[in-house]
Amino acid sequence: MNTLFVEAVGLMAPGLAGWTASQAVLAGQQPYVAAPMPAAMATLLPANERRRVTATIKLALQVAQEAMAQIDLDASAVRTVFASSGGDSEVLDKICTALTQPDRPVSPTHFHQSVHNTPAGYWAIATSCMQPSLSLAAYDGSFAAGLREAAALAWADQARVLLVAYDLPLPAPMAGHRKIVVPFGVALLLNPAPPANRLALLRLTSSGNEPADRLDDEGLEHLRSGNPSARSLPLLCAIAQGAARQVILSAGDSATLRVEIDP
Amino acid sequence: MAIKPLAIAACTLTNALGPGIAASLDALRRGESGLRPCDFEDVVLNTWIGRVAGLEEEPLRGEFAPFDCRNNRLARLGLEQDGFGAAVRQARDRYGPDRIGVFVGTSTSGIGATEQAYRQCDLITRSLPATFDYRHTHNVFSVADFTRRWLGLTGAAFAISTACSSSAKAFASAWRQMRAGFCDAALVGGVDSLCLTTLYGFNALGLASTRPCRPWDVERDGLSVGEAAGFALLEWAEPGDDRVLLLGYGESSDAWHMTAAHPEGAGAALAMQQALARAEVLPAQVDYINLHGTATPLNDAAEDRAVVRVFGSDTPCSSTKGWTGHTLGAAGITEAIFVSLCLEQGLIPGTLNTRQRDPKLGAGLVLETRESPLRLALSNSFGFGGTNCSLLFGRRVRSPSPRVGEGRGEGVA
Q1: Which helix (H) or strand (E) holds B390?
Q2: What is the mean pLDDT of residues B147-175?
Q3: Which residues of B touch A180 (CB under 8 A)?
Q4: pLDDT digits 0-9 by tens, B177-191
Q5: Does CATH number 3.20.20.140 belong to domain A3-196?
Q6: Residues B371-390: what's their mean pLDDT?
Q7: Band of residue A1 on the pLDDT scale cut at 50, 70, 90
Q8: Domain extents for chain A?
Q9: DSSP 3-state assignment of B402?
Q10: Active site residue B262
Q11: Which of A84, A128, A136 would you mutate first to test chain B, the one with the most B CBs within 10 A?
Q12: Domains located in chain B, CATH noted
């Protein structure tokens, strides 16, 4: 029961502009070149909505959209798990700033965008998806927690789950109190049953306290250690390499999650 | 086939009615609300709140001092009630500290600490006080992290943050994580505390009432924000288990609007239907529904449509928000434990503060609290972003008193 198939991947980070464009870099066939992250377009949102939403929402929706575009499948049938350490800090900064002003003029839009499940809500609306969706947080272990919850959901319901993990650096003045130095978003479409086309087979074997894998490439390691969602990078590199191997993902503090990967 | 049930091995509840389950049960029976005119910090809003007394004077100390904020103080107060710590210690010895998962729902976690830090922000350097500890207070995970450390648990842990369905969904996650073998038992809970963000935010949306909230009332005009901590220890039910059991859960998304519920309650109905389907229970078998019932005009109307569509108008239902206020991310656990108490005590709470039922609403609303044996009861929790969760609980009735014309089976497990 502990196997999951990866059917599609979405990715957005500095120097990694989409999964398709990044596979050669992640597989070690091309050097990683740091570059500013392109603006997340999230074109599935209607234009008027796109103007209203924040960079965090667009990042989450962009990687989700990229993954779903790789497969001929109606997104309305897919359950979702959204994992993020801090949610939308840009919105929280605006609210906390408004609360320092006379009469505390909190914007209604900021307030409804402040919930951790805002990207999940926008995704459900944009894809007309009424399936179950969970939004969770586990600080630096958010990706590993999201992967395990997505797996548990996929196995329990015997259904596909789209896992979306994303985090942006916090704005000043919160930035000095939380070390997220790069933006990073990733989405994995997971299937508990063997699909027609698979990128990889995952086996979530155990969790423990063995040292988490680091990446040889300094630039990629800078991403991995600089964003909770980028703790997924050893897994993404293994998928891109297409060889059987195992990775040990950081699950927060000293905890880890071991994943075996078969092409 | 019905899913394998989970038993509530222990639980605890703290809210505006007081610390511990007895305070809630006593207030439910006596019809005494925990709501009061807003007296939180220096807030000047014409609204009522469900505030937990005494949190201001009880900082976290020692190794837990970094976690000190209103939300984690509330979590601590909750964890200290009802012998809950001792029950978890026993479970820890039995299962091992790394085999009990921790899944805690919260909406705003300790954002109050950031609100205060911003008010002390240095205007020239734009820097927050050096003592501000984002990770252990404001961050969403903080309350789950605090809870597991306080209880000495080291297994899988995360915070669930889906607005006002958060701690209902904790039960669904616990079931899945246990079924997947990631843990053998689960600590679920929800903690949300009063803060400026929610008080001024709901006010900005025009959703906060100027009076104690009146669910389903013809004059209802909004919610009362409350705060609460609740926790439950879950393990797989045993054959013949006579504890309160989680028999089914249902989750759905509205896919409609970020803050407004679907007018027909389509997502809410789906969540209720799935909870029934997982338990293999028919709507007519359900004895009581604890409504989400926030008392905003649109939310109650949407939930009413959904309840009537799934259950018709005969199933007794009520909203207990008039006692506690809307405790947001803690509403799911609060009302799950209310339902569990109702099953144990044979109690159907009324709908406090509600005088005249909205004639346009058709659900079988109960206004006055009454005694009634219950076997199956449902709890609804819905939230911003169109997130819905329904939980179905049941309890085997050991020696049912004979009743003329009663044709139901003996138990539910």
Answers
A1: strand B387-394
A2: 97
A3: none
A4: 999 999 999 999 999
A5: no
A6: 97
A7: low
A8: 3-196
A9: coil
A10: no
A11: A136
A12: 6-394 (3.40.47.10)
